[in-house]
Design brief:
Elements (H helix, E strand, L loop, with lengths): L3 H4 L3 E7 L14 H15 L4 E6 L7 E4 L5 E4 L5 H4 L1 E11 L2 E13 L5 E8 L7 H4 L10 H22 L2 E8 L5 H9 L4 H7 E4 L10 E3 H8 L2 H11 E2 L2 E3 H7 L3 E4 L2 H10 L6 E2 L12 H10 L18 H23 L8 E6 L15 H10 L2 E6 L7 H16 L5 E5 L4 H10 L2 E4 L11 H7 L3 E5 L4 H4 L6 E4 L9 H26 L1 H16 L4 H13 L1
Parallel strand pairs: 1-2, 1-8, 2-7, 8-9, 9-13, 13-14, 15-16, 15-18, 16-17, 18-19, 19-20
Antiparallel strand pairs: 3-4, 5-6, 6-7, 10-12, 11-12
Bound molecules: pyridoxal-5'-phosphate.
Pyridoxal-5'-phosphate (PLP) binds next to helix 2, helix 16 and helix 17.
InterPro entries: Agluc_phsphrylas (IPR011834), Glyco_trans_35 (IPR000811), Glycogen/Maltodextrin_Phosph (IPR052182)
GO biological process, one term: carbohydrate metabolic process
Protein name: Alpha-glucan phosphorylase
């Protein structure tokens, strides 16, 4: 039976996100943003915070990835049945889209924690009888369709979300927009509060997630006019959301939120340059510790650091775990991954070779093929001490460059087949991510500065004693103590240099450190290596988790 009745009427924080990753068989997410939203829900439940999550049902999921022998990606719908995992709520809301009243229903998922906390998550769905066939599809494809389709989705999320919460009887004290997709909600509140913008600002918290310009949704006003179809709302949208002649969802949220957050310290600075005149705070992202620790390390932590899961700060006591135990747990996790890869791909990866992992969305700014920029040097590295690679990641269906990068990696795979083993796994998702992140020796991250706002997969690596080797961008600027908690690739940001100079310095450093630092330490000075593994746990994981992040959101933005 639903516990919803018990929590209605008590003040809650409504957490809006276009994607939320709750479980493998609820494929309503595409990458880091959705994982962060899921980790937010998971930590909030354990901390007994009064949150309610709002998202779209995305009933055809993101997509299933197929790769042919050349790395050519094709996509299939990832249909799933909300009714198998969630309960249909009785209430419905209505949103005017173009000239039609579109009905919005909600599915309730109750996320329960071992501490007894429960966070309701409501998935909005326009597949309702009475809606036109076209309107029934609005909540179907995550990041699918064209610009107009996206605009309709955002209208349903922001406006429909606020209305459905009210219909259900929720009492909302704060609205938290996880990215600008939901910022139509500010407009709904503005009308509700009789135009009192200060009251809207007191009620709204906004987290922005990317310095990549295309990551900020904008729409031409003629299109918005056709979809919103309300002169009063248009006036407000022009007043609060206009930027360079278009409706900018980030600007709308910035103008009507009392608290604005960047997701790492560096991201706050970059955001202030991108949006001059606005004040940003920074609460650096985290990951949900228990979710992102593999079974082998959970068992170890349970034995030596009881209570760690709901108090990840305790991981600072990792020194109590003997080196041999750390190494055994890691070796077991690595064996599981390597055996899995060999079963799937028949490639014969070795259990004893230094294994480097790279898994994330295949987007150009993340430079997934960076390590293959100079094959001669990579071969030289491999002569100094053997290495092997495991890659995974989806390219957005319309991102031709992202798809091309996957094909390039397949090309290098072929070219290097006599010396360096490389494998690319399909369908990177939460389960594969944990298996990979816990099972490799080094987690590689080579984004182009300053475009990685935070990044979270490296935090997951640290939770499993896996060593980060990353460009100094996003969270890693805060997490990296060179040679102590992991390794930096290239110089710290801030100095005046051209992108070409930066790239060549990074490349040089990447090969140099692999050959002269990482390989000798991994193969010849195992105890020093295990020390870095322990520092990853005791100096990174203890801090870069969503328990700490949510406590900060509570004290700095919600109350
Ligand atoms: C953690 C995670 C991400 C985010 O990885 P980044 O390196 O931060 O981009 C993306 N996809 C999945 C499935 C993840 O688990």
């Amino acid at each position: 039976m639903s516990e919803l009745a018990e929590i209605l009427g008590k003040d809650r924080i409504a957490y809006f996100s276009m994607e939320i990753a709750l479980a493998k068989n609820i494929p309503t997410y595409s990458g880091g943003l959705g994982i962060l939203a899921g980790d937010t829900i998971r930590s909030s439940a354990e901390l007994n915070l009064p949150l309610v999550g709002i998202s779209l049902v995305n009933s055809s999921g993101y997509f299933l990835q197929r790769l042919d022998e050349n790395g050519m990606q094709s996509e299939e719908a990832q249909n799933w049945s909300p009714s198998e995992h969630m309960e249909l709520l009785g209430a419905e809301a209505t949103v005017l889209v173009e000239r039609r009243d579109v009905k919005v229903k909600g599915w309730l998922y109750e996320h329960r924690s071992f501490t007894g906390g429960m966070i309701p998550v409501i998935f909005l769905d326009t597949d309702v009888e009475g809606n036109s066939r076209q309107d029934r599809e609005i909540t179907r494809y995550l990041y699918g369709g064209d610009e107009r389709y996206r605009l309709m989705q955002e209208l349903i999320l922001g406006t429909g979300g606020v209305r459905l919460l009210e219909k259900l009887g929720f009492s909302i004290m704060k609205y938290h927009m996880n990215e600008g997709h939901s910022s139509f909600l500010t407009l709904e509140l503005l009308q509700r509060y009789g135009g009192d913008e200060d009251q809207v600002r007191r009620t709204c918290v906004f987290t922005t997630h990317t310095p990549v310009a295309s990551g900020h949704d904008t729409f031409p006003f003629e299109m918005v006019e056709g979809v919103v179809n309300d002169p009063g709302q248009m006036e407000l949208l022009r007043k609060f959301g206009e930027s360079e002649g278009r409706l900018n969802m980030t600007v709308l949220a910035l103008n009507l939120s009392g608290h604005v957050n960047g997701v790492a310290k560096r991201h706050k600075e970059v955001s202030e340059q991108m949006f001059p005149g606005y004040k940003f705070n920074s609460i650096t992202n985290g990951v949900h510790s228990y979710t992102w620790v593999c079974p082998q390390f959970r068992e170890l932590y349970d034995r030596y650091i009881p209570g760690w899961a709901n108090e990840p700060e305790l991981l600072v006591r990792v020194r109590n775990i003997p080196n041999g135990e750390i190494w055994r747990a890691h070796r077991d996790a690595k064996k599981e991954l390597i055996d899995y890869v060999n079963r799937e791909k028949g490639i014969g990866l070795s259990h004893d070779v230094l294994t480097i992992g790279f898994g994330r969305r295949m987007a150009e700014y993340k430079r997934p093929a960076f390590v293959f920029s100079d094959l001669k040097r990579l071969r030289k590295v491999n002569d100094a001490g053997r290495i092997q690679f495991i890659f995974a990641g989806k390219a957005h269906p319309r991102d031709e460059r992202g798809k091309e990068i996957i094909r390039e990696i397949f090309g290098y795979m072929h070219e290097l087949r006599e010396s360096v083993k490389i494998v690319f796994l399909e369908n990177y998702d939460m389960d594969l991510a944990l298996k990979m992140i816990a099972g490799v020796d080094v987690w590689l991250n080579t984004p182009k500065q300053p475009y990685e706002a935070s990044g979270t997969s490296g935090m997951k690596a640290s939770h499993n004693g896996v060593v980060n080797f990353s460009v100094l961008d996003g969270w890693w600027i805060e997490g990296c103590v060179p040679g102590v908690t992991g390794y930096a690739i290239g110089p710290a940001p801030g100095m005046e240099r051209s992108p070409e100079e930066a790239e060549s310095m990074e490349l040089d450093d990447l090969y140099y450190k692999l050959e002269y630092v990482i390989i000798p330490e991994y193969y010849n000075r195992r105890d020093e290596w295990i020390n870095i593994m322990k520092n990853s746990i005791g100096m990174i994981a203890y801090y870069f988790n969503t328990h700490r992040m949510m406590r900060r959101y509570v004290t700095e933005t919600y109350f």
